[in-house]
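Re: [help] complex structure
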Amino acid sequence: MPPQPQKIDLTTLEPRHLVALKEQIEEELQNFAQSSITLQKAAGEFGTSGRSLESLSEQKEGQPMLMPLTSSVYVAAEVASVKTVLLDVGTGYYIEKSPKEGVEYCRRKVQMLKDSLDKIGQIMRDKQQQLQIINTEYNARARAQQQRA
Amino acid sequence: MDVAKMESMKQAFQTEANAYKQLQADVAKNHTARQQFIQQQQENDMVLKELEMLEEDANVYKLIGPALVKQDPVEAKSNVSKRLEFIRGELGRLDSQLKNYEEKQQKKGQQLAKMQTDIQALTQSAASAVAQA
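Output below.
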């Protein structure tokens, strides 16, 4: 759903609404933090893939290597071809490309993820600011209440 | 004071309240479905962009079950475009559905508030009648 920009005059809100608003923003912040962790992980994975491809393109055909079957079991193998690699581009589609193009692809993906991360970071800063404003207002309200009592 | 009238009002209120809850559940369901489609849309968008960058003689495969099956790049592109079109259509449908739900929800909310005040008024008049007697 597109976020609806709306201005709320905090001074007109009741304290319990302030608290609700605060909780809502805190929850949103948490979701964004979660997303940015996921994005960072994905960016890291694409970075690793890119580096692997780079080293693969420097190898020659017939070069002996150890292939991981699991994370701790390896078998001796030979590089059969360094001409093409298959890239998983999503929704079940794989594209045959040269390793160089593969590296390019990984770099593009990392860049895209970084852009998203920047966007999320900006949103998080905005939300944090909102949260601060709400907190200030809430505290001011609490003090006023105390003075009246 | 007719107790029967009071009872039927309360019952009607309960029915309406349940309908309201049902609406809320529908809205939540709509939301989940929408998120799924948005996710698919983004993934398909990405795939389409990659496919568009390809040369005509590029090799494209599709994972069907456990097997990779070779596809014609042009055909693959049109398939993904079709898929995107379908997703867009679904998103539009969900949008209008949500609007419909929201309108209904607002109406129901007003109706519920009115019924509540009616019941309160009736209870009060009954109470004062008892007090006078």
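The longest helix of chain B spans residues 73-132.
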